[in-house]
Structure to design on (440 residues):
């Protein structure tokens, strides 16, 4: 029996694909061991979203080869796509597999070990068809991420992902529904729709004239599946939030009112340089629609500070916009050059100390807004899906999340609450991360 160790980097799509690859490895008799252990085969599911991600991918590949110089080290995914020649020249890498061949990992690996495939590079090109992978379980035991599409057509000026992942390819609705039905049978209750650009789900179907499915119609079909208790969305393009879309998701029985709308900047001029296809006014209109549809929705976002050309005035416009919106959470990133993108060669690159100062301002705002949002629920009854036990302050608590993704702690009373939906009152703030719950 061959032993396989794996390390996953990057987004939830990568996590989904890693789960699918591990599932196939186990099905074919491979033993999965920890990455720190000596293994016959090491698989690194790489990421290329930033230069730092590239560096981490390289570090993990080299760590694997150092742990066992006789092992087969496999580089898989986005870094392989974005820097093919660099990975090919890396002595630590024995086998390269592109994103569109992850589903064939076991067959490719066995061909390589049998000496049938002598090349170190295995099909790094993209395809126009969605590459079907299907899960019967996940490494996470209470929440299942469901990949519904791949690729992106947006070409933001700072981003390499369209080059690493290719154009939009949507998964057939029937395949998605069958996967979810199987996972319901396996005990999963919460499902998170994920992809590279899920707002684009179905656009390729319409171009081909083969179907009229879009994200809303897919969600409506999932909502009707017996056993689905929660339906959550991954990151959304702000322009998808129309009156029709808000009304449609508001009518879903199992929708979680937790929406990640990727902003990046609150300044229209900065957004233009980023090649983002909306204005701050359009973004805010979408936020208002969601708040009109749901009582107290959790709205989160991403913000990049120090983008090339961002003046003090532009940053102040962004800061004021964020203050106006009042997000539940903001993920604040300092811009870093990404080789191969238009932004990397733009003039007026911002000095690192300025980026740090601007980042600190927004992080402080985020901490304040997050606290305000969470404390709204004190004294209210909520439903929580519990996931795991953790020790906090010397006591054992069950940890879970509300539909709005507010973290909740329940004092361990000897019962097993794993993967259980429990109602109770939120009574106080336990720590910076969680609110304390008392059962109803």
């Amino acid at each position: 029996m061959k032993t396989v160790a794996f390390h996953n980097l990057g987004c939830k799509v990568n996590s989904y694909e890693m789960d699918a690859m591990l599932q196939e490895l186990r099905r074919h008799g491979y033993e999965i061991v920890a990455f720190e252990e000596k293994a016959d085969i090491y698989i690194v599911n790489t990421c290329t979203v930033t230069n730092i991600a590239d560096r981490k991918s390289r570090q993990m590949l080299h760590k694997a080869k150092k742990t066992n110089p006789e092992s087969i080290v496999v580089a898989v995914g986005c870094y392989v796509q974005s820097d093919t020649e660099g990975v090919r020249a890396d002595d630590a890498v024995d086998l390269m597999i592109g994103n569109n061949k992850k589903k064939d990992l076991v067959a490719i690996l066995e061909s390589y070990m049998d000496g049938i495939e002598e090349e170190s590079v295995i099909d790094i090109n993209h395809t126009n068809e969605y590459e079907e992978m299907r899960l019967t379980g996940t490494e996470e035991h209470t929440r299942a991420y469901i990949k519904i599409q791949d690729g992106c057509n947006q070409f933001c000026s700072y981003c390499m992902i369209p080059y690493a992942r290719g154009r939009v390819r949507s998964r057939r609705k029937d395949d998605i529904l069958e996967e979810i039905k199987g996972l319901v049978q396996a005990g999963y209750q919460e499902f998170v729709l994920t992809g590279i650009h899920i707002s684009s789900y179905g656009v390729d179907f319409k171009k081909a004239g083969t179907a009229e499915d879009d994200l809303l119609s897919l969600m409506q079909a999932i909502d009707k599946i017996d056993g689905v208790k929660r339906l959550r969305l991954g990151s959304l393009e702000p322009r998808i939030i129309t009156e029709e879309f808000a009304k449609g998701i508001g009518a879903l029985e199992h929708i979680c009112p937790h929406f990640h709308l990727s902003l990046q900047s609150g300044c229209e001029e900065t957004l233009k340089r980023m090649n983002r296809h909306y204005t701050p006014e359009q973004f805010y209109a979408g936020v208002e629609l969601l708040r009109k549809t749901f009582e107290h929705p959790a709205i989160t976002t991403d913000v990049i500070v120090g983008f090339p050309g961002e003046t003090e005035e532009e940053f102040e416009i962004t800061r004021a916009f964020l203050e106006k919106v009042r997000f539940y959470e903001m993920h604040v990133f300092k811009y870093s050059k990404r080789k191969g993108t238009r932004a990397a060669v733009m003039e007026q690159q911002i000095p690192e100390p300025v980026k740090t100062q601007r980042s600190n301002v927004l992080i402080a705002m985020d901490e304040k807004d997050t606290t305000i949002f969470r404390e709204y629920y004190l004294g209210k009854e909520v439903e929580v899906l519990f996931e795991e036990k953790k020790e906090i302050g010397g006591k054992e608590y069950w940890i879970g999340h509300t539909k709005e993704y507010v973290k909740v702690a329940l004092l361990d009373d000897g019962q097993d609450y794993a993967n259980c939906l429990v109602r109770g009152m939120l009574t106080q703030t336990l720590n910076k991360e969680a609110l304390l719950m008392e059962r109803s």
Notes: The chain has a mean pLDDT of 94. The domain at 3-122 is CATH 3.40.50.12160 (Rossmann fold). The CA atoms of residues 45 and 243 lie 39 Å apart.
